[in-house]
UniProtKB/TrEMBL annotation, chain A:
One of its GO terms (cellular component) is plasma membrane. The gene is chp2. SUPFAM superfamilies: EF-hand. Residues 109-144, 150-185 form the EF-hand domain. It is found in: Cell membrane; Cytoplasm; Nucleus. The keyword Nucleus applies. The keyword Repeat applies. Pfam families: EF-hand_7. Its main location: membrane. One of its GO terms (biological process) is protein transport. GO terms for molecular function: calcium ion binding. It comes from Oreochromis niloticus (Nile tilapia). Keywords: Calcium, Cell membrane, Cytoplasm, Lipoprotein, Membrane, Metal-binding, Myristate, Nucleus, Phosphoprotein, Protein transport, Repeat, Transport. Belongs to the calcineurin regulatory subunit family. CHP subfamily. This is Calcineurin-like EF-hand protein 2. The lineage of its organism: Eukaryota, Metazoa, Chordata, Craniata, Vertebrata.
Length: 194, 860
């Protein structure tokens, strides 16, 4: 206990982070270790280069977007607390906590998870997934398997499916509605962060 | 009726299958194979005889050669007789299927067993001895493989592997637990004197025999589980847990049974630690060896289907034969045959589906289901029949009741305990209600019975008691638990399977979630199962698919495309249904090109249009290219609004632009192809013409979308290409302007500019890539009579305008029917049209030309 609390002390605002994200102190510690490991120059923050050094991300078709998500606030660095806050989106939803958790919405709520996914699409942050943005995602994920025409028609169709107000783009509400049946809690959660 | 067909097909299929694999299998099949050999022999001798007789004494016009065919006749009759006993259960099933409200309360399996009781009673009354019993050979070699293969082949792989840990824990540890606890408890009860109640006095069963009995009772039966759970639609995870467990633990239980069987024959004193260790080792060898054999055969099937492009008609056969071979091979090597065939099915399913022609895939699916259903039916009915036999009924109240009790109780304990452990590791824990259903779904079935019958009477004195107890447990679980399962599911409010409607965005986002999770695992430095999955996927895509899949199929394996394809197909189907509902178009057939034709007449217009761009390319080229490249969207409202005008326009279009074949379709017989003799060029031309017109007209209605640049380029190029010829383009334009009702021919300049604009407008939907392909062909292939008919296009347009407002009636449309297949040329038809349109009376049409010749063989 003593050792864990002492190492917890080196994490800035540990208690506050735990309250905001719902992570336990063990989680925080593990993430802090990881953070330090990523932060090769010990600067106390991460830059996009640090993320790009992670092996698997280079192969990931949407790796770039994920990295962008960490830098969504416009800065080009990310410190530990924002790092944790982003990762907290992927904490599995805790049933018991949700019932009592009236004080504030945790990042791993359904809406927040969806919002995160939505922002992966919405590159220009105008609150809408335009056809072009959708196409880019499709291109990244389907890669060379498909012709450009097929991609275009898929994008067209996907937009038409979700687009309720016929503005030829998908707003967050529409996005949420079209994913109503998807079990987001399972699909946007990582077991290890439980 | 369909069921009847199924039954027949199943019978034929099983005979065929048996014949094919008989060399491996040996004795049991000799009769069947013999019959076939004789059949073929006799046909040979028939021919040779014919030759001889013609040489000898003139030519007998007809001769009665009974003795030549006698044997085969008799064999055939005998076979039918033999098969009767299988047909009967199948007939029963049809009766049962007919009463759907019965099956909604009582599961089919229970009903079938009850039918079995009745049948058995009848047989007993007639013969006073039970002639039909389910022998282990028949069950394990002929009936079970089909059910299991079907289960494996249709296994939702992703779901299965996601939950593999839980399934394995339940299947292996749970089964061992069930076996051990049941055996030990029964033994303990006997020691305690609880068994003494029977009329036969003390039971002569030792600890090992109890364990043997426990091991055969331990397994949850896949056949029973499938039968019950298929009717109770519980959620995916729960289903896969129960189902996967039941499949895998069959393998486990057979292994356990064999180990204990060996122990029993070895005798108690000789068993030492070494033997026990050997037993445990053999357990793993048997289980993993069986799975490996299955995987091997699965890969073999995949490889084979990769190379069967030219012999599509027999590719479905491979799957059955090789699947069965995997079962037999494993059996031969005394590995777990059930595991083998399960993994064979699971391994090959993806590649088989990708490699084979769509028709073959369907064939496999239906045949597989038919086999499985047939086997399942026979199994249950025979379970029922077996009950009516005086020999096996040895009553021992204590033994039977205790067994029942222990089976139930230990199942509950085992499931709850194991799930409790599993839940600490699961992302989404199994809820209490799910656990109850899992426990309650522990149905015992035919596997247990088959194993019980296999017991050696010399080694186990109380075999009949065990068989009898097994039967009672089976009846209890299948009938009672089966019936109460549905109410229980309702009462506990178990999460049911959601009716899922695929949507592209959903699929795309799911895919994105997967990538996101992998990325986040990378970032947070953990190796979770997302990471493993992505590695596997990478390996699979780069190596397995490369080896096992056709190059053409490899490109299209993405699920997103699959969904897209499905959605498009669905739309096309809806289109057809809608058309049929509107009451015309009796000529709609399955053939894609005709769907296209029909759709045109049904709902398309020139002037007003929706985003209804030419899905037909996708549908038509289905056989060649399973992924349509153009999207189809239906907008019902707009369609309704313009329907009246459209119909008339459509007539006009059809009159003008459809290619009228001068050829009749000729059928030809081929052993390896189904399709009728279609002239490639003709189909292509029809397609191209309709495509062009639709592209031109539809896009004209879509406004206000910003254009991708590529499309503009295409249209310009196209128009330049067109100009020298002028004809096809002109034609489309005139018809277009005619529909506008105001411009007439002079408006061609307007049209061109308008069209260019609208091409941009439709951006993103229609496929500009078609255009270059289409153009050269079209230039070449305008038949002279069509070109001539353009001369009077203005006249037609005029008459057409006159028709505006005339409501479309079915008869009106039916008139179009003969058009496409008419052997007359266009001219005669357009000319015919003119007078009657001038009179504005469609009822005075000339009688339609004779209906086209029957084209049934292509479609049945």
């Amino acid at each position: 206990m003593g050792s864990s609390s002492s190492s917890r002390n080196k994490i800035p605002n540990a208690q506050e982070l735990m309250d905001q994200t719902g992570f336990s102190s063990a989680h925080l510690l593990r993430l802090y270790d990881r953070f330090e490991c990523l932060d090769r120059d010990n600067r106390g923050y991460l830059s996009p280069d640090d993320f790009e050094a992670v092996g698997g991300l280079a192969m990931n078709p949407i790796g770039g977007r994920i990295i962008d998500a960490f830098f969504s606030s416009g800065q080009d660095t990310v410190d530990f607390s924002s790092f944790v806050r982003i990762l907290a989106h992927f904490r599995p939803t805790d049933r018991n906590r949700n019932k009592e958790g009236t004080q504030q919405e945790l990042p791993n709520s359904r809406t927040r998870k969806l919002k995160f996914a939505f922002q992966l699409y919405d590159l220009d942050r105008d609150g809408k997934i335009s056809r072009e943005e959708l196409l880019q995602v499709l291109r990244a994920m389907l890669g060379l398997q498909v012709t450009e025409e097929q991609l275009q028609s898929i994008a067209e169709r996907a937009i038409q499916e979700a687009d309720l107000d016929k503005d030829d783009a998908i707003s967050f509400d529409e996005f949420k509605k079209s994913l109503e049946k998807v079990d987001i809690d399972t699909k946007m959660s990582i077991g290890f962060l439980k | 009726m369909l069921r009847c067909g199924y039954a027949l097909f199943w019978l034929l299929g099983s005979v065929l299958l048996i014949c094919v694999v008989s060399p491996v299998k040996g004795e049991a099949v000799v009769t069947h194979e013999g019959s076939h050999l004789k059949l073929s022999k006799s046909s040979h001798s028939n021919e040779s005889q014919h030759g001889h007789s013609s040489n000898a004494t003139g030519i007998p016009i007809i001769s009665f050669k009974w003795h030549h065919v006698e044997t085969s006749y008799l064999v055939a009759f005998w076979m039918i007789k033999e098969k009767k006993k299988y047909i009967l259960p199948l007939a029963n099933r049809e009766v049962i299927e007919a009463n759907h409200h019965v099956t909604s309360v009582i599961p089919e399996s229970a009903l079938l067993i009850c039918f079995g009781f009745i049948l058995g009673g009848m047989i007993w009354a007639a013969d006073k001895v039970q002639t039909f019993t389910l022998t282990p050979t028949v069950f394990f070699l002929y009936l079970l493989p089909q059910v299991i293969l079907d289960a494996g082949y249709h296994m939702p792989n992703k779901l299965f592997f996601t939950n593999l840990g839980g399934i394995l824990v339940h299947a292996v540890i749970g089964t061992c637990w069930n076996a051990a606890s049941l055996g030990l408890s029964l033994w303990g009860c006997q020691m305690g004197g609880a068994m003494g109640i029977s009329c036969t006095g003390d039971l002569d069963i030792g600890l090992l025999q109890y364990l043997l009995f426990g091991s055969l009772m331990a397994a949850v039966d896949p056949v029973a589980v499938i039968a019950v759970f298929e009717q109770v639609h519980v959620n995916d995870v729960l289903f896969i847990m129960v189902f996967g467990e039941s499949l895998l633990n069959d393998g486990v239980t057979v292994v356990l049974f064999n180990v204990f069987d060996a122990f029993v024959s070895l005798g108690g004193p000789k068993i030492d630690a070494a033997e026990i260790i050997k037993g445990i080792v053999s357990f793993f060898v048997v289980a993993f060896g069986g799975s490996l054999v299955g995987l091997g055969f699965g890969l073999l099937i995949s490889l084979l289907t990769r190379c069967t492009k030219n012999i599509q008609i027999i590719e479905p056969g491979f799957i059955f034969v090789l699947g069965y071979l995997s079962y037999l091979t494993a059996e031969m090597l005394s590995l777990s045959a059930i595991l083998s065939i399960v993994f064979c099915g699971m391994c090959c399913q993806k590649y088989v589906r990708a490699n084979m022609d769509e028709n073959s895939v369907q064939t496999v699916r239906y045949a597989m289901k038919a086999f499985a259903n047939g086997s399942e039916t026979i199994i249950f009915v025979f379970l029922g029949i077996s009950a009516i036999d005086k020999v096996i009924w040895v009553w021992n109240t204590g033994f039977i009741l205790l067994t029942l009790l222990f089976v139930l109780v230990y199942r509950f304990i085992g499931v709850f305990f194991l799930t409790w452990i599993l839940n600490r590791f699961r992302l989404v824990p199994l809820e209490f209600v799910d656990q109850v259903i899992m426990s309650y779904g522990g149905l015992r079935g035919a596997v247990a019975y088959g194993l019980a019958v296999m017991l050696d009477e010399n080694k186990i004195k109380e075999k009949n008691l065990m068989v009898c107890t097994t039967l009672i447990v089976v009846y209890f679980t299948v009938i009672l638990q089966g019936i109460t399962m549905k109410p229980l599911v309702m009462w506990l409010k178990v999460k049911r399977a959601a009716v899922t409607e695929v949507s592209l965005l959903e699929k795309l986002t799911n895919k994105m979630f997967n990538h996101t999770l992998v990325a986040i695992e990378d970032i947070s430095g953990q190796i979770g199962h997302n990471y493993m999955r992505s590695k596997w996927k990478y390996f699979e895509e780069n190596w397995m698919s490369w080896i096992l899949m056709k190059p053409s199929a490899r490109k299209k394996q993405d699920q997103l495309l699959d969904v897209f394809h499905q959605l498009n197909l669905k739309d096309a189907m809806e289109y057809v249904t809608e058309g049929e509902r509107r009451g015309s178009l009796e000529f709609v057939r399955n053939e894609n090109s005709i769907i296209d034709f029909k759709k045109k007449s049904e709902s398309e217009s020139f002037d007003i249009n929706n985003a209804n761009i030419s899905n037909d390319h996708g549908v038509m080229s289905n056989t060649r290219d399973p992924i349509p490249s153009v999207s189809l969207e239906m907008h019902e409202q707009t369609m309704k609004a313009v329907r009246e005008a459209e119909a008339i326009n459509a007539h006009h279009l059809l009159d003008q632009h459809l290619y009228k074949s001068r050829k009749q379709h000729r059928h030809r017989f081929s052993r390896s192809h189904f399709d009728i003799n279609r002239d490639e060029k003709e189909v292509q031309e029809i397609f191209q013409r309709t495509m062009r017109n639709r592209l031109e007209s539809f896009t004209s209605a879509k406004m206000g979308v910003k254009p991708p640049k590529t499309i503009v380029k295409h249209t310009q190029k196209e128009q330049q290409q067109k100009m020298p010829n002028g004809k096809s383009m002109d034609k489309a334009k005139t018809s277009y302007s005619g529909d506008e009702g105001s411009e007439g021919d002079s408006a061609s300049g307007y049209d061109q500019s308008y069209m260019r604009a609208t091409y941009r407008a439709g951006a993103g939907i229609e496929n500009p890539a078609f255009m270059p392909d289409l153009d050269p062909m079209d230039l070449l292939q305008i038949p002279p009579w069509l070109a001539e008919s353009e001369l009077d296009s203005s006249m037609v347009a005029l008459s057409h305008r006159a028709q505006v407002g005339l409501p479309r009636t079915p008869s009106n449309l039916r008139r179009l029917a003969p058009l496409r297949i008419s052997t007359r040329s266009t001219d005669s038809f357009t000319l015919e049209n003119i007078p009657d349109t001038q009179q504005m009376d469609s009822d005075q049409l000339p009688p339609p030309p004779p209906p086209r010749p029957p084209r049934d063989d292509g479609y049945v």
